[in-house]
Write a structure and sequence with these properties.
By secondary structure, the protein is α/β, with parallel strands linked by helices. The chain folds into two domains: 151 residues, 3-Layer(aba) Sandwich (D-Maltodextrin-Binding Protein, domain 2), CATH 3.40.190; 103 residues, 3-Layer(aba) Sandwich (D-Maltodextrin-Binding Protein, domain 2), CATH 3.40.190. Helices cover 40% and strands 23% of the residues. The chain has eleven helices and 14 strands. Strands 2-1-3-12-4-14-13 form a seven-stranded mixed beta sheet, with helices on both faces. β1, α2 and β2 form a beta-alpha-beta unit. α3 packs parallel to α4. The radius of gyration is 22 Å and the shape is globular. The N and C termini lie far apart (63 Å).
Length: 287
């Protein structure tokens, strides 16, 4: 009788422990990073931030850089990633196929909650305006890139230039650094790049600033968000928000510093959705 009672108490205790043990008992946090630059540079630029995150959470951080933006989105959808740093447009795409929510964006020492896209060209190609792009070769970054495709394309169309027919050749380079280098080396006449990533390419010696001209600058674009899967345990989601809130003045690449992470929600990216609608983009065809 006593033995049965003892077994019952132990079983109840085990059940109680199972309930109070954190649901996120996982020891590894899988973090996705978009391939805005060479994958090795992407991981290197984010290493200090990832190391601080690991220390704050007491978890091992496993970074993942896909070959393109959609690779990160698919990894989120398949639950191979827990959180990911996405571009604004790739985040909007992700919400159409995966249960994800944006929760923070970086504020750096040079930019706040927004940034800009550029269209750049070599000075010796005599391109000084959008009209001068007629019949030229051009590089976008990726169909899912905000500053490397969505906003520059919208800017071209608003200026009366038709990207689908106006260029003699149009390519997707796969990365902002690749686009900047293609312009520098004369592989294309002009390209779309993010302001900070152009600056990074210049600081790394990939591009010579005195040989490049900025032809067009976008209006402010919402910053790139870190997103989390909505099905993560609530306790882990709270810890993630706390961990990012604690990060201050974190080195980010060769010449950037994350001053802090700003809390955001999905509505912050409505302007991106509106821009996609203006272009009549079929989101399903971009995934």
């Amino acid at each position: 009788m006593i033995a049965r009672l003892l077994r019952g108490l132990l079983a109840g205790l085990a059940l109680t422990l199972a309930v109070v043990v954190p649901a996120h008992a996982q020891k590894v946090l899988n973090v996705g990073l978009v391939p805005a630059e060479d994958p090795r540079l992407v991981v290197s630029d984010n290493q200090v931030m990832l190391d601080q995150l690991a220390k704050s959470l007491g978890m091992q951080i496993k970074p993942f850089v896909a070959t393109d933006y959609n690779g990160v989105i698919e990894a989120l959808r398949a639950k191979r990633l827990d959180i990911a740093l996405l571009g604004p447009f790739s985040y909007v795409l992700a919400t159409s196929v995966a249960p994800v929510e944006a929760f923070v964006i970086p504020e750096t020492q040079k930019q706040g909650a927004s940034y800009h896209a550029y269209i750049i060209a070599r000075k010796d190609r005599n391109i000084r305006s959008i009209a001068d792009l007629e019949g030229r070769t051009f590089a976008f970054v990726d169909p899912s890139s905000t500053s490397g495709h969505l906003f520059p394309k919208a800017g071209l169309i608003k200026a009366g230039f038709e990207p689908e027919t106006g260029f003699s050749r149009m390519i997707f380079s796969g990365g902002h650094d690749a686009s900047a280098i293609a312009v520098q080396n004369g592989k294309v006449d002009a390209a779309a790049v993010a302001d900070a990533l152009l600056e990074s390419a210049i600081s790394r010696g990939m591009v010579k600033q005195n040989e490049i001209v900025i032809v067009w600058k976008s209006p402010p674009i919402p910053g790139a968000p870190f997103v989390m899967r909505t099905d993560l345990p609530q306790e882990l989601k709270a810890r993630l928000r706390q961990a990012f809130a604690r990060q201050k003045d974190v080195p980010w690449g060769p010449h950037a510093t994350i001053k802090r992470w700003l809390a955001v929600d999905d509505s912050h990216f409505d302007v991106v959705r509106e821009t996609a609608k203006l272009l009549d983009l079929d989101i399903k065809k971009l995934k």
